[in-house]
Write a structure and sequence with these properties.
By secondary structure, this protein is an all-alpha fold. It is about 75% helix and about 0% strand. The protein has helices at about 5-15, 15-35, 40-55, 60-75, 75-85, 95-105, 110-120, 125-140, 150-165, 170-180.
């Protein structure tokens, strides 16, 4: 129903196809979390954080999803995050899941940023890990500084930074330039 609208918005907002790779991984890990499967983030010790981040899918009908989509297209990051849950559960649609995750990230939803950052930070490529740390830092800025979520995320960022120091450094500038 709003598929054409999604395409129009994606083309106007300049949906970056290179982000699609990371978002595909994120979308599939969200589905795995909702089905109880192990993801890389769970294996690395952050299973509680990832499970807590997975959208609960409180949208119960296509009409509710349509209303949430209208809100999300107007900049409501929480509505976009709800749509991620809607399209990763019973109404699974990978393409829409990726799209709404991108909208949630672009609108700085802390859960979407944290989930993306966690998935990037568990990569084996030091350049990707650095991107994950950057995204986790963005997520941290949107949380209350004295909250338990912020403290947990800070520990996770510190762990990712320590892990990145043990990796063989690559040429991140050339890698990043080739992605543009």
């Amino acid at each position: 129903m709003y598929g054409r609208k999604m395409q129009e918005v994606a083309s106007v907002q300049g949906f970056n196809p290179m982000r699609r790779v990371a978002l595909t991984f994120v979308a599939l890990s969200l589905v795995a979390c909702s089905e109880g499967a192990k993801t890389d983030a769970q294996v690395s010790g952050s299973s509680a954080a990832v499970a807590a981040l997975a959208p609960r899918g409180s949208l119960s009908s296509d009409a509710a999803a349509e209303v949430a989509a209208q809100k999300a297209l107007k900049g409501d990051a929480d509505a976009a995050w709800e749509l991620v849950g809607y399209y990763s559960g019973e109404h699974f649609d990978r393409q829409r899941n990726e799209y709404w995750h991108q909208v949630a990230v672009d609108n700085r939803n802390s859960n979407a940023l944290t989930h993306l950052g966690q998935n990037l930070a568990t990569a084996n490529d030091p350049c990707v890990v650095l991107r994950g740390i950057y995204v986790l830092e963005l997520a941290l800025k949107s949380l209350p500084a004295d909250g338990e979520d912020a403290k947990s995320l800070r520990r996770e960022i510190d762990h990712a930074e320590a892990r990145s120091r043990t990796m063989t450094p690559g040429n991140c500038l050339n890698t990043t330039a080739s992605l543009r």
